[in-house]
Every structure is written in structure tokens, then in C-alpha cells.
Amino acid sequence: EVQLVESGGGLVQAGGSLRLTCTASGFPWKDYSIGWFRQAPGKEREGVSCIYNKDGSKYYTDSLKDRFTISSDNAKNAIYLEMNNLKTGDTAVYYCAAFAFVGYYSGTVSLDGLRYWGKGALVTVSS
């Protein structure tokens, strides 16, 4: 059974930081790119970042790359998202995701290759 489990969401004030963690199981970790997407209330899903597991390349949606950092621990089948200087516009449910391929177009992480995702972690940024 495929499982991706997020943790670390919560309420934070604008300017603060949060670290999300995702642990995965049930699929061949190295064969997928692993990352994050988010969905804010009333908005479409938005790719945030992903790691191409075969060579460790990291991709970020341009508008987030100066504040967000993705990392992984392949021994634990885990990825992390460090989010700094959070803004109220970052309020969303953040989903851990496994991608069959990396889609990266015009500075945006695409969800074209999305295959599996978790239940999400709510991040709320207050002003």
C-alpha cells in the first residue's frame, strides 16, 4: 500500500518558519521524484518543489525558491520542506507527492507527473 504521511503543519505568524516532514512507503523510492504541492482555499493546486531522486536535482517554483528549501533522507524515505519568512499567502494544505517524472516549465513545478500524494498538512500563516 502506498503511503505518504505529512507532519509539521500548524499555525505560525507571518515572518515565521515551519518545517514539514514526509515519510513514504509502498513504492520504489528511487524510481520517483518526491516533492510538495499545495492548495490554498478556493485556489488550484500549485507545485512547490521536488527532488529528482536519481541525481538529487532540486526544483522550485520560482516565486518560492528564496524562502523554501527541500531536502531528503533516502535512508529514511523521507523528505522535508523548510519554509522561512512565511506570508499569509502561504496559507494552504501542503501535500507530499511522488512524481513519475519531473515537469518544470517556465520556473514552475508542474503536477503533470503526479502519481501519489498524502492527505496533507495544513499550514496557516496569520498576520
Secondary structure layout plus pairing:
Blueprint: E1 3-7, E2 10-13, E3 18-25, E4 33-39, E5 45-52, E6 57-60, E7 68-73, E8 78-83, E9 92-99, E10 104-105, E11 108-109, E12 114-117, E13 121-126
Parallel strand pairs: 2-13
Antiparallel strand pairs: 1-3, 3-8, 4-5, 4-9, 5-6, 7-8, 9-12, 9-13, 10-11
Which residues form runs of ≥5 with pLDDT under 50? none
Radius of gyration: 13 Å
The chain-level structural class is mainly beta
- Helix coverage percent: under 10%
Number of strands: 13
What is the typical, i.e. mean, pLDDT? 96
Distance between the termini: 40 Å
What's the order of the H and E elements?
EEEEEEEEEEEEE
Largest sheet: 7 strands, mixed
In short:
The protein contains no helices and 13 strands. With 127 residues, the chain is mainly beta.
Structure description:
The structure is a single chain. The chain is an all-beta fold. It is 0% helix and 55% strand. It has no helices and 13 strands. It has strands at residues 3-7, 10-13, 18-25, 33-39, 45-52, 57-60, 68-73, 78-83, 92-99, 104-105, 108-109, 114-117, 121-126. The strands form 3 sheets. Strands 2, 4, 5, 6, 9, 12 and 13 form a 7-stranded mixed sheet that branches. The radius of gyration is 13 Å and the shape is globular. The termini are far apart.
